[in-house]
Fold this protein.
Amino acid sequence: MNDSSDIKIWLDDERPSPKEYVHLKTVSECIELLETGKVRHINFDHDLGTKLTGHDLALWIEKRAFEDSNFRVPSYAIQSANIIGSRNIESTMKNARKVCSNPHPNLNCNEIILL
């Protein structure tokens, strides 16, 4: 990581992360890191082997964007075998971007990767 606000999260309970990512396996770990304001990008998996899913994290981001005008919505990608879950994450993150008055400047990194 080059910069303290250059954190990239890889949220996945099974797939290994690329070197430049912080590999997290739970929604609560992601929220803790997002609260620092240093996350610029998240790669989402939907099914995490726990009660909470990647969509729950997207919902948390959407709520924060709505409630806190200083919250930066990170860019994102989705790597999930769950097609419905992927679509739900995508829809929620698009909405978070719409309500966010302070999005992260790297906004062109949105993609869905179905595995």
Observations:
- The CA atoms of residues 80 and 86 lie 6 Å apart.
